[in-house]
Write a structure and sequence with these properties.
The chain has 169 residues and is mainly beta. The chain has no helices and 14 strands.
Length: 169
């Protein structure tokens, strides 16, 4: 009822109608993660994140997650931002490897240990055989601290990968 979110958008492309997450972080801020839709770029682009310390009345300048030189066709789905018990922020993404959307995807995470100021790209999960690879990943922290990644495969099944190092591998 109060109108659009007061977030400036300085990027090529626009906020997709998919890939949005609002998450209350342990430090009290709200994180707003957005999927960036870039026309002619297979619909993808590096995700964008910004933060609010006043319950959404104002927002920080949005930043790209990852290296702008690596601005490929990245995909992030709705409600995917995770904060691990360590405080690490994790954004699971897929990247189209083929020339066409709907081809083989690899899944990985971008992670931040400084509250979202800088991001590091993990190694990709092992790419399974099959027509789709690993698409639309999500991540959860297990009770023992490992991370579990589930992703859509191309044969009507979910695929899983685990990380014992906080999502680096």
């Amino acid at each position: 009822d109060e109108g659009p979110l007061p977030v400036r958008w300085p990027f090529t492309g626009y906020v997709s109608d998919g890939g949005v997450t609002l998450r209350r972080l342990a430090d009290g801020r709200i994180a707003l993660l957005m999927h960036r839709h870039v026309i002619g770029f297979k619909g993808g682009g590096l995700p964008v994140i910004c933060f609010s310390s006043d319950d959404g009345r104002t927002w920080t300048e949005p930043t790209l997650i990852g290296d702008p030189a690596d601005d490929a066709a990245w995909y992030v789905m709705n409600d995917r931002l995770v904060q691990a018990r360590s405080g690490r922020l994790l954004v699971p993404v897929a990247r189209a490897l083929g020339a066409e959307e709907g081809g083989r995807d690899e899944s990985l995470v971008f992670f931040s240990d400084d509250g979202g100021r800088s991001w590091t790209r993990s190694h990709a999960a092992a790419l399974p055989s099959g027509p789709r690879g690993m698409a639309e990943p999500t991540v959860a922290e297990l009770n023992d601290g490992r991370l579990l990644m589930l992703a859509r495969g191309g044969l009507g099944v979910l695929l899983q990968s685990t990380s014992t190092d906080g999502g680096k591998n």
